[in-house]
Amino acid sequence: MTIKKGNQVEIICGKDKGKKGEVIEILRKQNRVKVKGINMIKKHEKVTKEKKGGIISKENFLSISNVKNLDKVDEKKINKDKK
C-alpha cells in the first residue's frame, strides 16, 4: 500500500526510530516524506514585516524508505475491487 498525506506512519530507522506521526507532505519524485513532529531541525529566520524572526523548529524531509505505513485498509474493500 502506498503512503498518502494524512496516513499514520512509524519511523523504522534513524534518530527518531520507533516514533509515530502523521504524514504532512510528500515529494514523490524525490522519494521524500515529511512527518509531523519527526526529524525536527532549527532554522534561523531573519526579521521581516510579516515574520517575527529568530530560531524556529520545524520538520524536515526524510526518506520514504525509512517509514512504515500503520493505516490498515479494509480487507473487504480490497477483495471487492479485485472481483
Task: Please give a structural write-up.
There is one protein chain. This protein is mainly β and 83 residues long. It is built from one helix and seven strands, in the order βββββββα. It has one helix at 75-82; strands at 8-11, 20-27, 32-35, 40-45, 54-59, 62-63, 67-69. The strands form two sheets. Strands 6-3-2-1-7 form a five-stranded antiparallel sheet, with no helix packed on it. The longest helix is centred in the last third of the chain and has 8 residues, at 75-82. The mean pLDDT is 88.
Short description:
With 83 residues, this protein is mainly beta.
Task: Describe the protein's topology.
Blueprint: E1 8-11, E2 20-27, E3 32-35, E4 40-45, E5 54-59, E6 62-63, E7 67-69, H1 75-82
Antiparallel strand pairs: 1-2, 1-7, 2-3, 3-6, 4-5
Q: How much of the sequence is in beta strands?
A: 35-45%
SS element count, helices: 1
Mean pLDDT: 88
Return the structural class: mainly beta
Specify Rg, calculated over alpha carbons.
17 Å
